[in-house]
Hints:
Layout: E1 3-8, H1 13-25, E2 30-34, H2 35-41, H3 45-51, E3 59-62, H4 76-88, E4 93-97, E5 111-117, H5 125-138, E6 142-148, H6 155-166, E7 172-177, H7 182-186, E8 195-197, H8 213-219, E9 230-236, H9 244-254, E10 259-265, H10 269-276, E11 282-285, E12 299-300, H11 302-307, E13 312-315, E14 328-331, H12 333-346, E15 353-357, H13 361-372, E16 376-381, H14 384-394, E17 397-400, E18 411-414, E19 438-441, H15 450-457, E20 461-464, H16 465-481, H17 487-498
Parallel strand pairs: 1-2, 1-8, 2-3, 3-4, 4-5, 5-6, 6-7, 9-10, 9-11, 12-14, 15-16, 15-18, 16-17, 18-19, 19-20
Antiparallel strand pairs: 11-13, 13-14
Helix pairs in contact: 1-3, 5-6, 9-17, 12-13, 12-16, 16-17
The protein binds NADP nicotinamide-adenine-dinucleotide phosphate.
Amino acid sequence: MTRVIVPISGASADAVCAQARAARDARADLVELRMDTAITAGASAAALLEALPGLALPAAVTIRHADEGGSWSGPESERLALYAEADRRGAAHVDIELARWDGAWRPARAGLILSHHDFTGMGPGHEGLSALVARMHAAGAMAKIAVTARDAADLDVIRRLCLAGAGVAGGIVAVAMGEHGLASRLLAGAWGCELAFARLEGNTGSAPGQPTVRDLLDLYHLRAQGKETRVFGVIGSPVAHSLSPLIHNAALRASALDAVYVPFRVEDPVSFWRACGAWIEGLSITLPHKQALLGEMHELEELSASIKAMNTIYRGEAGEGGDGIGNAIGGNTDANAIVRCLEIAVGRLEGRKVLVLGAGGVARTAAFACKAKGAIITVANRTEGRGRDLAAEVGCEAVALERAGGCAYDVLVNGTSVGMGKPNESPWPAAWHRSGTVVFDTVYTPLETRLLREAVAAGAITVCGLDMFISQAVGQFCRWTGGEAPEHLMYRLALERLS
Ligand code: NAP
């Protein structure tokens, strides 16, 4: 099973001991004692070695050379003497860079980790990295590769290294550092890594992109992952703020599925999909990629095709459209979610006058989805020409946002970003609200927007953007698993996080 390892350092042996206790309390399996950074911070090497046997968790000892991102620049003989002493004092592992290891010394008791680091890129690429791993294994060591993902497509290199190295004596740990490589850390269990590096809450970690122990264990369920674990995720840029991992992982867990859902920060979605799509069963797609993969799908749902945007990828029947990425279907659960939220509030949309504010992605989806249900749409956008273009595509009226107060409507949908993160801003003047109408704000940060507050005060019925967010996630979950989503659980978790 993949063990969770927490790098620890500090300006004194006492500080290091305290961190080891914190790592144990956080449920890590072992610590990586970074002697190089601790010594640079002022700790004495002798005191660190003395503290080693009493640490709260078994320790891998690392004295990382400056050549590979560490802070050791002293004589090599001195470094080897410290490693030898760490071995005598019960280190569980010692980690030495392959490039600096000449084979003359090896630990008597500790496990040997031979490592390779690149803080700027993917080093020699898949073939070159495979060759390094082979040399590490030939030396009887655990192979450690830490390179830097330039985009999420690089994750596939790491995955192939891990799967090939996992069956070999010594084992492997391979990560792509940085936000684009985060999933390689979160999927360490599924990919058969010996170790998963994680940080303590409030610490920055020893390398870019380390998740917290808590997230690794409680959100991504590292210890439940295995090679059969199904992988789902969300692509976007940025994606770190997404609530989707929180609610989808909880839903997968509550449904007793061997599956995990991870964020993928992606800049080039087509390259990512072609490199990684074959091992990802389902994806959520968020900004700015909702149109980028339309041409990559075997099939598009009808609404995705007419809206020309999709937020979900799922799989067709096995064999349909071929294997790997060939049987992918693009869906738009945002559209269904908007309709569902509105129908709960107004009943049937047929014949209802729906005034859509905005002409961006969400407004577009709302306009097409309501039109498909027989509603009479008007689009009101700040940039009038953009609103007119959307209206022409949908087949409806357009009006400038500043003149929209004169429009008759039963349902007002805010598809602009006004109010997001700004509780005192609204796209709609309070005096324009009408009693008895339905006002739907797709913005859900904050949960209670100024638009909704003023709508309630005017006697309107309101629908909150969180309803749409949960509803689109429920639609995704059903497509991916064929089962029913635990909607209340998903709603409660999102509500707790946003509150
Ligand atoms: P988008 O494509 O960037 O479109 C933004 C729209 O807002 C444009 O029509 C823009 O008008 C308008 N706008 C921006 N600033 C404005 C201002 N100061 N006054 C008037 N109009 C303004 O964004 P999107 O993807 O459609 O997302 C819009 C909002 O939907 C997001 O902010 C998010 O809160 C919400 N959302 C909710 C969910 C959910 O599940 N509930 C999902 C996704 C998004 P111009 O054309 O004039 O620039």
